[in-house]
C-alpha cells in the first residue's frame, strides 16, 4: 500500500488506519510499528492523525449517557411504544400553557398598575420581572460573600452580595436563556449558538453565545457596566427595538465587546461607551500567537500586531510614520500599559485609550 | 470505524425489527443510543431535551415499523432522523449558517499553568490538537466528527446536513488546514516516546 506518501488527511480517511487506532489488533499493530520503522518521516503525520481520531473519540465519549440513563430511556420507550397516543406529552403542555397564561394575565395586570408611577426611562429589576410571562426562580445573595449558582444549562453565576438573579422555571426548554439581574454578577456561559444567553439588567441587555463576563447593575447606580473575560458579548439598550427583535438569532448585533474591553451604559443619556478594562490580560488561547517577549530590531508594526492579537485589542497608528521604527527590548511581567509605555518611549510617541482602542501618535523615526 | 458493527449486521437487525422482533429493536437501541445521544448533545445542550428526542425517535420507529423501507444503512437512517428531530425541536431557530459566525476569539479552556509547566513535546502536541478540536467552529467540528469518527461518506453527510457535497468537503478542508498549521510546529523528539508505548 502507498502509505509512504500519505498526509494527515489521507490517514484520517483510511479505513485500515482508523481500525488500528480505534480497535487495534495484533496484526494491525505489527503492520504500523513496522511501517514506522521503515518510514520514520511519516511519524509526525501518523501521530497527528491518531491524536485527532482519539481526541474526537474522547470528545464523543464525554457526552455518552450513563448506563442508568440508557436503561431508564429504554424503559420509557418500552412502556410508551405500544400506546396509541404518539404524543403523550402534549396534554401536559396544554395544561401547563393554560396555567401559564393565567399567571401572565395577573402579572400583566400588576405591571399595568405599576406603570404610571414611573415617568422616566429607568427600568427596575422588579419591572423587568413583572413583564415575564412565566414562573421564575429567584436567587438573592443576602450574605456578605459571593455565592456560586449553576443554571440548568451548566452555566454558572457568581453572585455578589446584595444582588439578585431570576430566571424562568422552564429555563432549560425556553428558546432563549434569559437571566434578570439586579446588582453584580460574573457569568460563565456554556456555549450554545442556537440558544443565545441574555442578561437583562436595568435598561441594558447583554447577549452572548458562550463566554464569561461581568455585569454590574445596581438599582441606584447611574451606569451599568459590562466587562468581558473570554469570548464576545453584545450589549444594547432595551429601547433598541431593531436589535431586540433579532435577539434569538445567533448573530451578535449592538455594541460588541471583546476580552479586555468593558462597556459603560449611561442610564441618563441611554448611551454606550467602550473602554479597556483596568488591567488587560493576555488571552488564553491556543489558536492565537504567543506574546513576544524578546525582540531585536523589530519593526514596531509587527510588535503592535502581536499585542493586538494577544490582548485582543485594537491599536491605531500611522503605519507610514511609525510602522518601520525598529525596537530592541524584552518584556517580563509588564502590564499592557507598561509595555505600551516602553514601546512609545522607544519610538518617541504617545498613546491614549479611546473608545476601547489604543491610539498611538508620534512623529516617526528616520 | 468507531462503530464496530457493520452495515450488514445492522441490516439484518433492521429487517427483523421491521417484522416486529422486539429483541432486534432493543439491540439496535443498545448499539446506537450512546452515539446518537452524544451527537445530539453537541447540537442541544440540555440532557432532558435530548433524552426526549431520542426516546421519541425510537418510539416512532417502533410504531411505524410496518411502513419503513429497507435501509441501506440503519445507522445513517437513525442519525438523519435524530438530526431532523433536533431541527424541528428548535423550531427553525436552529441556524443552518452557524459555521459562518465569526469565531476568531474562542474561549479555550487551557490553563496558563499547565501550558507553561508542560515541557514534554508529545503532551504539548496532544494539547494543541485538543485545543484545535475544541476551537473548531461547530459546523466544521460536526463534519469532522461525522466523517472521521462516525465514518459516514461525504454524500451521507451532505444529506444529513442538507448542504451539497462540495460544501461538506470545503468544511473538512477548512478544519484540516488549521490542523496542518499546527502539526508543522511539532518536534520529532517527543514522538519516540509515543511510539514506544
Q: What percentage of the residues of chain A does DSSP assign to strands (E)? A: 25-35%
Low-confidence stretches of chain B: 92-120, 185-197
Query: What is the chain-wise order of helices and strands of chain B?
Result: HHHHHHHHHH
SS-derived structural category of chain B: mainly alpha
Could you give the count of β-strands of chain B?
A: 0
Task: Specify the overall morphology of chain A.
Answer: flat
**CATH topology descriptor of the largest domain in chain B:** Rna Polymerase Sigma Factor, Chain: A
What name is given to the CATH topology of the largest domain in chain A?
A: Jelly Rolls
- Structurally, the number of domains of chain B stands at 2
Describe what this molecule looks like in 3D.
The complex is a heterodimer of chains A (366) and B (197). Residues 85-119 of chain A have low confidence and may be disordered. Chain A is of the alpha+beta class. Chain A has helices at residues 8-13, 15-22, 26-38, 43-62, 67-80, 89-114, 125-130, 241-245, 300-311, 319-322, 336-346; strands at 136-141, 147-150, 156-159, 163-168, 177-188, 197-201, 204-208, 212-217, 223-230, 233-237, 255-257, 261-266, 271-276, 294-299, 314-316, 326-330, 349-354, 357-362. Chain B has 2 domains: 1-97, Rna Polymerase Sigma Factor, Chain: A, CATH 1.10.1740; 110-197, Winged helix-like DNA-binding domain superfamily/Winged helix DNA-binding domain (Arc Repressor Mutant, subunit A, Orthogonal Bundle). In chain B, helix 2 (22-43) packs across helix 4. The longest helix of chain B has 22 residues, at 22-43. Chain B is elongated, with a radius of gyration of 20 Å. Classes of the chains: A alpha+beta (366), B mainly alpha (197).
Labels describing this entry:
heterodimer; A: 366 residues; alpha+beta; Jelly Rolls; Phage tail protein beta-alpha-beta fold; 3 domains; 13-stranded mixed sheet; 18 strands; B: 197 residues; Rna Polymerase Sigma Factor, Chain: A; Arc Repressor Mutant, subunit A
Amino acid at each position: 500500500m502507498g502509505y509512504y506518501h500519505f498526509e494527515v488527511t489521507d490517514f484520517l480517511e483510511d479505513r485500515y488506519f482508523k481500525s488500528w487506532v480505534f480497535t487495534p489488533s495484533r496484526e494491525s499493530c505489527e503492520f504500523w510499528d513496522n511501517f514506522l520503522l521503515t518510514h520514520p518521516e511519516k511519524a509526525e503525520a501518523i501521530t497527528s492523525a491518531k491524536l485527532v481520531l482519539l481526541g474526537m473519540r474522547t470528545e464523543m465519549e464525554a457526552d455518552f449517557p450513563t448506563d442508568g440513563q440508557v436503561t431508564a430511556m429504554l424503559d420509557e420507550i418500552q412502556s410508551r411504544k405500544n400506546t396509541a397516543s404518539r404524543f403523550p406529552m402534549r396534554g401536559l403542555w396544554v395544561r401547563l400553557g393554560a396555567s401559564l397564561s393565567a399567571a401572565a394575565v395577573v402579572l400583566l395586570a400588576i405591571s399595568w398598575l405599576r406603570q404610571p408611577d414611573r415617568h422616566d426611562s429607568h427600568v427596575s429589576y422588579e419591572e423587568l420581572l413583572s413583564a415575564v410571562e412565566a414562573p421564575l426562580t429567584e436567587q438573592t445573595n443576602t450574605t456578605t460573600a459571593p455565592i456560586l449558582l449553576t443554571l440548568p444549562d451548566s452555566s454558572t453565576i457568581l453572585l455578589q452580595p446584595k444582588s439578585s438573579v431570576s430566571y424562568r422555571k422552564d429555563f432549560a426548554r425556553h428558546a432563549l436563556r434569559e437571566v434578570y439581574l439586579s446588582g453584580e454578577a460574573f457569568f460563565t456561559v456554556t456555549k450554545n449558538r442556537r440558544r443565545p444567553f441574555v442578561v437583562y439588567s436595568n435598561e441594558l441587555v447583554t447577549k452572548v453565545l458562550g463566554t464569561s463576563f461581568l455585569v454590574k447593575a445596581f438599582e441606584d447606580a447611574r451606569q451599568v457596566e459590562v466587562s468581558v473575560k473570554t469570548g464576545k458579548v453584545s450589549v444594547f439598550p432595551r429601547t433598541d427595538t431593531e436589535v431586540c427583535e433579532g435577539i434569538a438569532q445567533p448573530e451578535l448585533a449592538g455594541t460588541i465587546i471583546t476580552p479586555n474591553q468593558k462597556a459603560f451604559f449611561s442610564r441618563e443619556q441611554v448611551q454606550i461607551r467602550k473602554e479597556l478594562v483596568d488591567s488587560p490580560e493576555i488571552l488564553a488561547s491556543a489558536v492565537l500567537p504567543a506574546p513576544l517577549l524578546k525582540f531585536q530590531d523589530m519593526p514596531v508594526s509587527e510588535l503592535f500586531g502581536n499585542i493586538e492579537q494577544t490582548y485582543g485589542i485594537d491599536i491605531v497608528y500611522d503605519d507610514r510614520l511609525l510602522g518601520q521604527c525598529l525596537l530592541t527590548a524584552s518584556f517580563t511581567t509588564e502590564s499592557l500599559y507598561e509595555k505600551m509605555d516602553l514601546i512609545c518611549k522607544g519610538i518617541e510617541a504617545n498613546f491614549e485609550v479611546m473608545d476601547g482602542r489604543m491610539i498611538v501618535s508620534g512623529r516617526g523615526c528616520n | 470505524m468507531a462503530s464496530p458493527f457493520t452495515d450488514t449486521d445492522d441490516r439484518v437487525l433492521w429487517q427483523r425489527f421491521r417484522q416486529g422482533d422486539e429483541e432486534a429493536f432493543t439491540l439496535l437501541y443498545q448499539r446506537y443510543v450512546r452515539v446518537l445521544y452524544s451527537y445530539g448533545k453537541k447540537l442541544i445542550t440540555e440532557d432532558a431535551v435530548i433524552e426526549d428526542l431520542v426516546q421519541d425517535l425510537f418510539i416512532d420507529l417502533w410504531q411505524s415499523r410496518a411502513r419503513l423501507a429497507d435501509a441501506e444503512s440503519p445507522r445513517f437512517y437513525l442519525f438523519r432522523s435524530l438530526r431532523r428531530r433536533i431541527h424541528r425541536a428548535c423550531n427553525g431557530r436552529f441556524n443552518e449558517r452557524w459555521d459562518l459566525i465569526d469565531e476568531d476569539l474562542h474561549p479555550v479552556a487551557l490553563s496558563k499553568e499547565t501550558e507553561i509547566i508542560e515541557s514534554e513535546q508529545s503532551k504539548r502536541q496532544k494539547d494543541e490538537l485538543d485545543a484545535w478540536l475544541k476551537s473548531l467552529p461547530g459546523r466544521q467540528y460536526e463534519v469532522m466528527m461525522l466523517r472521521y469518527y462516525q465514518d459516514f461518506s461525504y454524500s451521507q453527510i451532505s444529506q444529513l446536513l442538507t448542504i451539497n457535497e462540495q460544501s461538506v468537503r470545503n468544511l473538512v478542508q477548512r478544519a484540516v488546514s488549521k490542523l496542518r498549521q499546527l502539526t508543522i510546529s511539532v518536534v520529532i523528539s517527543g514522538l519516540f516516546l509515543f511510539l514506544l508505548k
